[in-house]
Design brief:
Length: about 400
C-alpha cells in the first residue's frame, strides 16, 4: 500500500494558480531590480558536495541537511544555502574576473526544520552578492537594494534591523570560553531569553564582556542604543563596530529611512561566516524574517581566493504570501475565447486558435463532442465568446 502517495512531505506544499502567479511576480520584480543595478544571474546546482557546507563558518548542522550519495559513494546534499556555492564559484570559475563581481540568484534551498517552527523545508530565495568590494559604500549599496527589494514588491510596511557581527565576536573572544558555549549564548541573545542567558553567563564569571552580554538583548532601538553600548564598552573592536553602525545609520537616515531602521546589537546570525554589518527585514502581516544578509570578508578565502564580500537573500515565499493576503494578485480570468471545431475541422480549429493567440487573446481548444456541449462548457467556465469552425468558416457566438 502506498501510504504517502496522496500527500506532500512535511515542510513542503503544492502551489496552485494565484500562488504561482504571486511567486512569479515577486521573482520578476526582484530580477528586474537586480539587473538594473548591474547584477548578473548565476544558478548553482541543486545537488552539491557536502564538503561545500562542511565548515564551521556555515553555522549548519548535519541534522538539518538533506543528504544522499552519488554513484561513487561521495556524500552530497540538497543546497541549504546560496552564499556558500556562490563563494565557491567566485574562488574557482570566476577567480580571474575583474572585481567587484555583482551576482544575483533565484533558486530553491532545502533544510530540515522542526515542525513547530512554521518554517518550510523547501523555500525559494532570491538575492545578490557583491564580491571584491569593501567599505561603507558597498554596505550601503547592499542595504539600500535590500530595502528597494521590499518596496518593489509592494510591501506595505517593513522594518530593517541592523547589527554588527564583529561586535558579538569581540565580546565572545574576550569571554575566553569554547565556541559551543558562545554559540549557545548567541542563541539566547537572539531569542531574548534573559533567564537562560543570565544563568549561562553566571558560570563564566563577572567579566566586563559578560556584563555587556547580559545587556545585549535589550540593546535594540535607535541611536540611543549605540550611546548606551558605548558607555559600557571599552574594547577597541566593540567601539569600532559601534562607530561604524552610527555612521551607517546616519547615512541611511539621509534617505528618509530612519523610521524604518532599528539598531539591534543582539542580532546574531546563524551563519558564522559574517564578519561585519548584518541585517534582516520584516514586513507587516508576517512573523517570519523576509530578508537577511551582511558582510562576510573571510568566507571566499576558505575556497582558496581571499576576497571581501557582502550580500543578502530574500524569502520569495514570504513576500508572495503577503501579496496574496493583501489582495495584490487578482484571481485568474477566464479564457477570452473557446474554439470548437466541428467533426472534420479539428485542425482548422487549432489553426484559428493560433491566429487568435497572435492577437494576444487567451484561447481554449474545446474537447466537447458537439456545439451544445461546447456552449454549456463555455458558460460553466465564464468564457464569453465561442468560435465555431466548420465548412462555412468561423462563426462567433456570444455566451
Amino acid at each position: 500500500m502506498n501510504k504517502y502517495s496522496k500527500i506532500t512531505p512535511e515542510g513542503t506544499r503544492d502551489l496552485l494558480f494565484e500562488e504561482c502567479d504571486a511567486r512569479r511576480e515577486v521573482e520578476s520584480e526582484l530580477s528586474s531590480l537586480f539587473k538594473a543595478r548591474g547584477y548578473k544571474k548565476v544558478i548553482t546546482p541543486t545537488l552539491e558536495y557536502f564538503d561545500v557546507f562542511n565548515r564551521e563558518s556555515s553555522g549548519l548542522e548535519m541534522e538539518s541537511l538533506y543528504s544522499l550519495n552519488d554513484c561513487t559513494g561521495r556524500l552530497m546534499v540538497l543546497r541549504p544555502d546560496s552564499t556558500l556555492p556562490i563563494a565557491r564559484i567566485a574562488a574557482t570559475r570566476l577567480k580571474d574576473a575583474r572585481y567587484p563581481l555583482r551576482l544575483y540568484y533565484n533558486q530553491r534551498v532545502f533544510h530540515r526544520c522542526q515542525s513547530f517552527t512554521a518554517h518550510s523545508d523547501e523555500t525559494t530565495q532570491s538575492g545578490i552578492e557583491l564580491i571584491g568590494a569593501t567599505g561603507i559604500r558597498a554596505d550601503l549599496e547592499i542595504i539600500t537594494t535590500a530595502i528597494d527589494s521590499l518596496t518593489a514588491c509592494g510591501a506595505p510596511d517593513f522594518r530593517i534591523e541592523i547589527g554588527h557581527a564583529g561586535f558579538f565576536k569581540a565580546l565572545s573572544s574576550a569571554l575566553n570560553t569554547s565556541g559551543e558555549i558562545c554559540a549557545q549564548i548567541g542563541e539566547f541573545i537572539e531569542a531574548k531569553n534573559y533567564a537562560a542567558l543570565n544563568d549561562l553567563l553566571d558560570t563564566l564569571g563577572d567579566s566586563e564582556s559578560a556584563k555587556v552580554m547580559r545587556n545585549l538583548p535589550r540593546l535594540f532601538g535607535d541611536t540611543e542604543v549605540l550611546d548606551e553600548a558605548q558607555s559600557i564598552c571599552t574594547g577597541k573592536d566593540e567601539l569600532s563596530a559601534i562607530s561604524y553602525l552610527r555612521d551607517l545609520y546616519k547615512k541611511l537616515a539621509q534617505l528618509g529611512l530612519g523610521k524604518k531602521i532599528n539598531i539591534d546589537l543582539g542580532l546574531v546570525h546563524r551563519n558564522n561566516y559574517y564578519t561585519g554589518v548584518v541585517f534582516r527585514g520584516f514586513i507587516e502581516g508576517s512573523g517570519l524574517t523576509v530578508l537577511s544578509g551582511g558582510r562576510y570578508d573571510m568566507l571566499i578565502g576558505e575556497f582558496g581566493r581571499q576576497l571581501p564580500a557582502t550580500g543578502f537573500g530574500v524569502e520569495i515565499d514570504v513576500l508572495a504570501n503577503a501579496m496574496l493576503n493583501r489582495g495584490a494578485i487578482p484571481p485568474a480570468k477566464p479564457s477570452d475565447v473557446l474554439v470548437f471545431g466541428e467533426d472534420g475541422f479539428e485542425m482548422q480549429a487549432f489553426a484559428h486558435a493560433k491566429d487568435l493567440n497572435k492577437m494576444k487573446l487567451v484561447c481554449e481548444n474545446c474537447t466537447e463532442e458537439n456545439e451544445e456541449s461546447a456552449r454549456a462548457y463555455a458558460a460553466m467556465r465564464g468564457i464569453k465568446r465561442l468560435d465555431i469552425v466548420n465548412g462555412k468558416g468561423v462563426k462567433t457566438c456570444k455566451i
